[in-house]
Amino acid sequence: MSGAAAAPATSARRLEGAPFASEIRDRVAADVAAYVAGHGHPPGLAVVVCGRSAPSMVYLERILKACAQVGIEGSLVDVPGDDPETQARELTAAIRRLNSDPRVAGIIVQMPLPTGVGLRTVVDAIEPLKDIDGIHPLNAGLLRLGYEGFIPATAHAALEMIHRSGVEVSGADAVVIGRSPVVGMPLAFMLTKEDATVTVCHSRTRDLAAKVRAADIVVVAAGRPGLVTGAMLKPGAVVIDVGINVVDGHIVGDVDFASAERVASAITPVPGGVGPLTNALLLSHLMRAAQRQDQAKERFDA
Ligand code: NAP
């Protein structure tokens, strides 16, 4: 064995989501109270579910609990059907009903959809003003052009964590691993808008380690446990782990936390990092949707 002294282990700052989430929920609760005073009822969030699985129910119950905490009226809308054709038809019908329900200010659809039911079904049906998770092409297009619309809550949470790490985004080299329309790509657009130089990596990327090693900011949203290790990181990098995976009955992210926290300057844990912030931001999007619908109605009535 080598007699060289081990370098003293440093530890990255842990970016916990709970304190930030609690600040956001307090602000939303105040806005909800003002809304109730003006309307006589709370704003509603409809969560559309196409086929229930145990892990997705845990996630949905968390959202409904978070709604109740701030006074939002959360509801689960079950879509019936045993085959993709029926499910797609019923999904469209359910979303259209919610679009025209004045007590529902925001709609989210639980992902992944059942096999054979495409995201396009949701995209074609959802009203952009109620699309609080930013999947409608209008919202996705506004984001792409750098205008304000609804952005996916998970990408928003990852960006918020980057801001809260204190890293200077402008001019930074950022690597985003994952190019999905709900996490990787929206985040890449947002970071580009904030003047980072962004490299988007995916399953066909060659030499991922070299790309990661060059980055000041690393966001991992691949759904692959242990994909990024401390040995791949530039010392002092900010690491945002969006991944949620179940390994041996435990929830873990995409980053090997133990090795990464010795090299990074700040890192989000899983669980407890991006996840809680995502839920809180979703509530803030719901409240913003309710306010925007009021403004649209005022313009229409004027
Ligand atoms: P997704 O649609 O499955 O996309 C995964 C992306 O990762 C794809 O672009 C894929 O590349 C890329 N990828 C897969 N394996 C890779 C590898 N070995 N090397 C590099 N890239 C690889 O997933 P998603 O919906 O974006 O979600 C990503 C993760 O975030 C999942 O673990 C999900 O559970 C989690 N998530 C967390 C939250 C939260 O609130 N924290 C919310 C939503 C999702 P290709 O495009 O080439 O296939």
Notes on the protein architecture:
By secondary structure, the protein is of the alpha/beta class. It has two domains: 20-128 and 277-291, Rossmann fold, CATH 3.40.50.10860; 152-273, Rossmann fold. It has ten helices and eleven strands. It has helices at 17-39, 54-70, 84-99, 119-125, 137-145, 153-165, 184-193, 208-213, 257-260, 274-301; strands at 13-14, 44-49, 73-78, 104-109, 173-177, 197-201, 217-220, 238-241, 245-247, 250-252, 266-267. The protein has a six-stranded parallel beta sheet with strand order 1-11-8-7-5-6. A hairpin with a 2-residue loop joins strand 9 (245-247) and strand 10 (250-252). Mean pLDDT is 94; it is low at 1-8. The protein binds NADP nicotinamide-adenine-dinucleotide phosphate. Residues 154, 177-180, 182-184, 201-205, 208, 221-224, 227, 242-245, 274-275, 278 line the site of NADP nicotinamide-adenine-dinucleotide phosphate.
Concise account of the structure shown:
This protein has helices at 17-39, 54-70, 84-99, 119-125, 137-145, 153-165, 184-193, 208-213, 257-260, 274-301; strands at 13-14, 44-49, 73-78, 104-109, 173-177, 197-201, 217-220, 238-241, 245-247, 250-252, 266-267. It is of the alpha/beta class. The chain has two domains: 20-128 and 277-291, Leucine Dehydrogenase, chain A, domain 1 (Rossmann fold, 3-Layer(aba) Sandwich), CATH 3.40.50; 152-273, 3-Layer(aba) Sandwich (Rossmann fold).
What is bound: which ligands?
NADP nicotinamide-adenine-dinucleotide phosphate
Tell me the strand order in the biggest sheet: 1-11-8-7-5-6
User: Strand percentage, roughly?
Assistant: 15-25%
Helix content: 40-55%
CATH top level label of the largest domain: Alpha Beta
Return the average pLDDT rounded to an integer: 94
Radius of gyration: 20 Å
Main beta sheet: 6 strands, parallel
Low-confidence runs: 1-8
Morphology:
globular
